[in-house]
Specification:
Layout: H1 18-42, H2 44-76, E1 84-88, H3 94-104, E2 110-116, H4 118-129, H5 132-137, E3 146-151, H6 156-167, E4 172-177, H7 180-221, H8 223-231, H9 236-279, H10 291-316
Antiparallel strand pairs: 1-3, 1-4, 2-3
Helix pairs in contact: 1-9, 2-7, 2-9, 7-9, 7-10, 9-10
InterPro entries: ABC3_permease_C, FtsX, FtsX_ECD, FtsX_proteobact-type
Organism: Alcanivorax dieselolei (strain DSM 16502 / CGMCC 1.3690 / MCCC 1A00001 / B-5) (Alloalcanivorax dieselolei)
Family: Belongs to the ABC-4 integral membrane protein family. FtsX subfamily.
Length: 324
């Protein structure tokens, strides 16, 4: 029988384990990040300008959103909040009126109540109207007992629900609510929120375009280097990664810059705004960004930079090929 030939002693099967693949992948990403940061430090002028443009573009909608959130919180506790005037029937005694006011103050959606007796209403009307002599000629007090209800929620739907609830009570003759100003306020806030949303989308697109142009210029400046890498067998993925890291780093740094700009603006406005709130006897003060916003903004900006770099690389990298 023929014997199987033996393999040469020095021959070995070349096998690459999954761990080796992961190690090579990790090392290349680390080197790509280091290369991106090094090239950004090598061109400080253009890099700083790009980061500043991104920071200003994102600071505008972020700052407006923070101010709108402050306005929403402040107006919820404003002394000019909606009041529900509940007129009781004429035969309701003062003791029953005060008992109703106490019970209503414990209802859901009610912050406080105020009792205005028939005599108090008459005295106030006489003082403000100037018809004291006419009122003295009347045989009886024509004004009904009144309970002023201060809702804890200024949402129009909640106010109308509270009005309907109190109107059904047997002692109530009329529950009157003027929600026109409340509707206007909420409409203005809703409009502002939508405008900020549109502005955010527009400026996010501007950030992407800025990064696209920056990465395009970087690709053109490294055209010969890219050609050499492709000649020696470098893949598009190998060439693409440093540019993607450059886009992400620019975007991330721009998001941090936006946080600094917004924080500085809020600090500068804080004194006058808080002084104005003190004049209106408000217990609120201007607040800054929430921790969630401070965390999400740089990541969101970095994602925009990554998207812009991907678009630029996908568009321009394929145009660079070795010419034999």
């Amino acid at each position: 029988m023929a014997r199987n030939p033996k393999r040469p002693a020095g021959a070995r099967s070349a096998r690459t384990s999954l761990g080796d693949h992961f190690t090579a992948w990790r090392h290349h990403h680390r080197d790509s990040l280091a290369d991106a940061l090094g090239r950004m430090r090598g061109t400080p002028g253009s890099t700083l300008l790009t980061i500043l443009v991104i920071a200003i573009a994102l600071a505008l909608p972020t700052g407006l959103s923070v101010l709108l959130d402050n306005a929403r919180v402040i107006t919820q506790g404003w002394d000019g909040r909606a009041q529900l005037s509940v007129f009781l029937k004429m035969d309701v005694k003062e003791e029953r009126q005060r008992a109703l006011a106490k019970d209503w103050a414990e209802l859901d959606g009610v912050a406080d109540t105020e009792v205005i007796t028939r005599q108090q209403a008459l005295d106030e009307f006489r003082e403000q109207s100037g018809f004291g002599d006419v009122l003295e000629a009347l045989p009886d007090n024509p004004l009904p007992p009144l309970i002023v209800v201060f809702p804890s929620n200024n949402e129009p739907a909640a106010l109308e629900a509270l009005q309907q609830r109190l109107s059904k009570l047997p002692e109530v003759d009329l529950a009157q609510l003027d929600v026109a100003w409340v509707r206007r306020l909420h409409a203005i806030i809703e409009l502002g929120q939508r405008l900020i949303g549109v502005l955010t989308l527009a400026l996010a697109a501007a950030v992407v375009l800025v990064v696209v142009n920056t990465i395009r210029l970087a690709i053109e400046s490294r055209r010969e280097e890219i050609v050499v890498i492709k000649i020696v067998g470098g893949t598009d993925g190998f060439v693409r990664r440093p540019f993607l890291y450059s886009g992400f780093c620019c975007g991330f740094a721009g998001g941090l810059g936006a946080l600094i700009l917004v924080g500085t603006a809020l600090w500068w406005l804080g004194g006058p705004v808080n002084q104005l709130l003190d004049l209106y006897k408000s217990e609120y003060s201007l607040t800054g960004m929430s921790p969630a916003t401070a965390l999400i903004l740089p990541l969101f900006s970095g994602a925009l930079g990554l998207l812009g770099a991907w678009l630029a690389v996908s568009r321009h990298l394929g145009e660079i090929e070795p010419q034999f």
